[in-house]
Amino acid sequence: xxxxxxxxxxxxxxxxxxxxxxxxxxxxxxxxxxxxxxxxxxxxxxxxxxxxxxxxxxxxxxxxxxxxxxxxxxxxxxxxxxxxxxxxxxxxxxxxxxxxxxxxxxxxxxxxxxxxxxxxxxxxxxxxxxxxxxxxxxxxxxxxxxxxxxxxxxxxxxxxxxxxxxxxxxxxxxxxxxxxxxxxxxxxxxxxxxxxxxxxxxxxxxxxxxxxxxxxxxxxxxxxxxxxxxxxxxxxxxxxxxxxxxxxxxxxxxxxxxxxxxxxxxxxxxxxxxxxxxxxxxxxxxxxxxxxxxxxxxxxxxxxxxxxxxxxxxxxxxxxxx
Length: 322
Known about the structure:
This protein is mainly alpha-helical. It has twelve helices and three strands, in the order H-E-H-H-E-H-H-H-H-E-H-H-H-H-H. The protein has a three-stranded mixed β-sheet with strand order 2-1-3. The longest helix has 34 residues, at 100-133. The radius of gyration is 23 Å and the shape is globular.
């Protein structure tokens, strides 16, 4: 009887904090991963900051396509910054504890930035569709006002829809276990510790993923399918090659972003025998795209490369004259 009372009283207790254990299965040497992760984070911050400076300084880059690229750079830095400081604190200072409100706030921020990035990719796909398929109407359709309105619309969508994720997670009862085999507060990772039924959380996660990223991916595929159809109708091979080259960098980033997201969803949904894989994919999905996006654009876009060269050249020239 005393044992039953003890069990019932412990089940009524609510934990006050979670403990992020890091990468499952490699706790003894996971701190060695801090160096490459820190370098990726620094690369994400520095390269995206450089993109913003270049777009701001170069008048030739004051175009809708580059405005969207600048917005993407801000979102990328925000996405990486939601997880990397805490991950590095875990590895370097053993700061594994995180309060419930902080955990739910991080969960919400990750969903917001991922949804916003997906929305910006849609805007960039629409921009390329109008530029290639409706070139004469491009200046009248894709204006600065259009960039502002579309960005505000997708940002509001991305910040309003995911509210259900932390709200539903906070409604779960966490009565005994508080150790999370993860580096960050993922929705399904946190709610797996709940003592009550978490089915509503899983359903909400799937619905949200398809309603946001699923719809976005459908619009992107449709836009680029129409672009490809239009390009194939061009008589000039040179014009077709130029049109496709402007889309290549977009497609590389989009394919990388959504491929990782789909693989991550599948690995989370399936009960994997190696829990390290979904955790590692989750972390990499939040830090690799932000660090790679600027480099892909710099390599594939001649105007941006020229702008970066001018910024570097002017800075070096100014330093020499001092």
